[in-house]
Every structure is written in C-alpha cells, then in structure tokens.
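#data-curation
PF: Archiving a pair of folding outputs for the training set. Convention for this channel: one message per protein, sequence first, structure tokens after, nothing in between. First:
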Amino acid sequence: MGRRTTGERALRRVLLAVLMGVCLVGLGTAPALAQGTPGGQAARAVASADGGRAQAADACKPAVQGSYVSAACTREAGTRWYVYAVCRTWVVTDPGYLVYGNVVTGSGTSAARCTVANTFVSGAQVYTYPPQPTAVTGPIVGVFSGKCVDVDNGSDRDGTPVQIFPCNGTAAQKWSIVSDGRIVALGKCLDVKHNGTANGTIVQLYTCNGGGNQQWTRTANGGLMNPRSGKCLDNLGFNADDRAPLGIWDCNGLGNQQWTLPVG
C-alpha cells in the first residue's frame, strides 16, 4: 500500500474522532449512551444508580479526560453528591460498565477512573442525594384541654392508643414533627387506625411505613390534618379527662382540633 497523502491522514483522523464518540453529558439531560447504541445497557443503568436514591443535580458538569472523570462543585454544607460515568472499549457492541466517584459532602471534588484497561469514559453525570428530612421535637399541647398528646403508658407496641394526659416531659409526650409529614414518638408514627376515614376513627402509635394514614399537615387555624382522610386530629367529644382518646373528625377549626406544636 502506498504512502497516505496529508489529506488522507487528516480525513482518517476526522473519521476516528467521529467513531470514538466521546461525550460529555450535562446534568438534566439523558446519558450520552442512549438505548440502542453501544454502551446503551450501562447507560440505562445510570437511571437507577444507587437504587434510585440519588437525583439529578444542577449544571455542575463533569470534565472527562480519556479514562478519567472529575467534577468540582459548590454545594451547601451537608449536601451529599458524587460523579459517575459509563466506561467502554472501542468495540461497537461493548455495553460498557459504570464507575462511581467518591461521595462529597458540601463543596469539593469527586473523581472516578475506568477500571478496565483500554476503556474510556463515554458519558458522565453528577448526582445529588435528596435532602434528608428535618424534625422539631417537643410536646404537642391541646388548646382546649391544656394537656399533652401522650402515648398510653409510654409503650412503643404497635397499636398503642394515643390520648391526652397532663404534661410531664416524659418520652411518651416527646413528638418529632418531621418535614416529610410524619409525627413520631418512641421511634414510631402517629397513625390513623386501619387506614380509617370515618369520623371518630382513633389514632394510635404504629411502625412507620410511609402510608397516607401516617401523614399530617398543619392547617391555617392550628389543626393537624391527615390528607388521606381529609380530616383533622380531634380531642373526641371535647373530653378533657385524663386518657381521653384522640381520633379524626371533620375539620372545623374548634378548640378541640387546635394544637400547639414544638418549635425549633
């Protein structure tokens, strides 16, 4: 074969660059290796990285150099994030594999390198973990009764009734109002019994399970509403006696549905 001309060599370099297809993917866009293309299998795995616990972050973009990728990002204190990438060979049918960088808390640099010889980074992203829920802990006091929301006998057994009782500062009256909608005492959730929606359904302590019957939102007039039932936490029957039961009832804004919550 004769010597290639300068033009042929230049064309060959252009074609090689096209075949390489080394991509840098910005955040908020699909991975560079789409379904049906070389590396597509690994790219699809990107969508479920960390079992879905992570979520796409902002425009902090990773920088790729062959088999190495890094990202230097500015984040708020406590925010956890990392860079990850798809690596593959020049073989068109190679599905590729994933590599993960170090997890960074706050601002810093996360980096990863392809672990198999003769492979390169063909797509990369930065992912940020969802924010952790926050909580404020203290007593919940009934406006009508002046008494505290209380777990009967301080028991953490599932199904233990929740009632009112003179405020005493015990663990049975220390409730965490969590930003994700839960109200927690003794490690368990304030729960509408049996997912009930009828007026008078009692509330109890139960293992937290993410159910709608364990979600509560603050109302404008000082109530606590369970969105699933559309009803409010109620000192049933305006009963101010010790151990009077609590349940749900149509929201009415009256004193037996008003509660003073702990503040941070």
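PF: Second:
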Amino acid sequence: MTKSYQIQIGEKILTVVVSDEREALLVAQAAGRAVLGVGKSCEGLEIPAVAQDWSCVSRRMAEQTARRKERLPWIICTGERVTVREASQEDWRALQCWGPFREWPDQEAFQAYIDGQYSFYEYGLWLIEEKNTGLLLGRAGVWNPDEETCRRLEEAGEQSETYLELGYEVFPPYQGQGFAAEACRAVMAYADWELECRLCARIRPDNLPSLKLAERLGFKRLREPNETNFSLIPSHRDSEEIQWPSLYVWSC
C-alpha cells in the first residue's frame, strides 16, 4: 500500500510518500520526495525512516519526515512561554555566545549530532527558546544513561532499560525566571506519552537550585546501597574534595 501526505512548512508544500512497497519508495526518493517506509519489507533500504507498521503512521510522523528531509528542526514540545525543539545548523552561531559545549565541540560535531542523534534515536539534547520571540534560552533533553548510571539503577532495584536521563541548562541571563521548570515539565510530559519511559537525573549535592527544582518536578532521590561509596566519575573537584552526583528518578 502507498499513500501520500501534503505537508505545509512555512510557504512550502511538501509531498511525503508513505509505503510498504520498496519500489514505490525508491521511485519517490529518486524524484526528490520525502519518503517513509512501513514494515519489515522496507528494512535495509537507504531511506531516512521506517515505521514499524501502519498503526504507527500519522500526519505528525509525515511532517517529521518532511522536516528531516529539509533539515528543519522538529518542535518537540511547548510550554506557556517556551518551545523545546531540535537544534539546526542555523543555531551554531547563536550558541557560540554560551559555549563551548562538551557534546558539540565544533561545528562538524554539531552537524553530526543533528544528523545522527535525532534521526536515529528520536530524542537527545534539544534547545529551549522563548515562544514569542525565538530567543535562545538554553538546552534540555533526554539521552541514554551511561553504564555507571545504569549500574546504580540496577543496584537500587530499578530496570535501567526503562530509563532515559534528563538534563537541562538555562543560560545565565535567563536563570531564575522559571524557564527551566517549564521546559523540564514539557520534556517530562513528552517522555511519558511519546517515549513511554521513566526519567533519572544526576545532580551534584552542592547544586541547590537543581535539587530544589527536581523536588518540585516530582523527582525522588534514589536510595542506593553504599551511598557513601560511589564509583561514578566525579563531575568536578573543589580542592581535594570530590562532589558525587546524587541520582534522582521520576515516572508518571
């Protein structure tokens, strides 16, 4: 079966061809159209995305496919004042005011992250912008917990494969205005209904604003065996003292 969606993005109308027929997808792709495969018959094709079956296909997914082809950022979620969206190459210059960033050390790595992380995982580190002005406020997102965090979750009796890690950063001029809380609530709702996962967050004991925010958001500190003997790599050093991040968890 083959069907098409007409997706309007700005002033452009794009055709997205959705099919479980390999030949139809290849012909559409060769004609320059955005394509979305459906089902196992499409596995192995060099196309951007394949839905598990037709029940997963929606207009929203078709729009996402069109945006991927045009390299336009996907809007993940919104709050009253903020929009959380994917990063795009056009954001690189504005981000230089606030970097450097460990995840995006240079422009090449930034583009590789956009092309790989978002399209493969459908989640990652996103940007927070003010809804009315488009002003870049910070970053927030979810990602796979590292091996050490998974170990800590398992030792505390949690199933680590059901978790993603939540993180956020609001740039200094915009801190203390509630943007972090609003963005995190929107991301948490998205993680619940779209990604269907639980969330964990690592927070340094001396980071009081983030500790208070986590509690307001409903996170609970995970009680771990041997809490005074963490083997997690320290996030920073103050003189000779290591500040070990505490682990907080949340589920709807």
